[in-house]
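agent> Task received from the user: take the single chain below, predict its 3D structure, and emit structure tokens. No templates, no multimer pairing.
agent> Plan: (1) validate residues, (2) run structure prediction, (3) serialize to tokens, (4) report one or two observations.
agent> Step 1 OK, no nonstandard residues flagged.
tool_call: predict_structure(input=
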Amino acid sequence: MVPILLCSIIALAIIGERLWTLQRKRIIPRHLVAQIWHWYKNNQLDATQINAIRMSSPLGRVLAAGIVNMHHSREIMKESIEEVGRHVVLELERFLNTLGTIAAISPLLGLLGTVIGMIKVFTAITTYGVGNSTILAGGISEALITTAAGLTVAIPSLFFYRYFRGYVDSLVVSMEQEALKMIEVMHGEREQDMSEE
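)
tool_result: status=success, residues=197
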């Protein structure tokens, strides 16, 4: 039970931290590309502005990598954005492998508790015979409690693991779209679209 309780505490901590950290408004601030376009059009994009963009959010880090290379070709901008984007994705996925591991091992820990409980039941049977139902019931209940505890930890952990995986994927797609929009703006291919926003 102690490993299962530890897994439940770790899983709760990870779920809480990821729910707080992965808020869409923190990752992808609204109108960031439009603001960058406004600064770019008015020649206000200097090192201070770029640093502010970089520090504002994960999307800001990705876009700042492209802005630094805005005077180079479109391909170089995309490469720099993709390079920083890979690091940002790793940060967005932080602790998810641990949560997935907890979801996988919690039922196994419960099963281990069940096996240990059944071993105690059979040991009691060999020692006292089948006549002492109190000892038998104690071992069986221990076996069932650990199984239930393992599943109670595993089910929400698996749910949130899958949810966060899908959510991070949707954030990454949105960040890619914003980055491509900015690249097209910087190279004059979306000027009309951005001015309409």
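agent> Step 4: summary for the user.
The chain has nine helices and no strands.
agent> Done.
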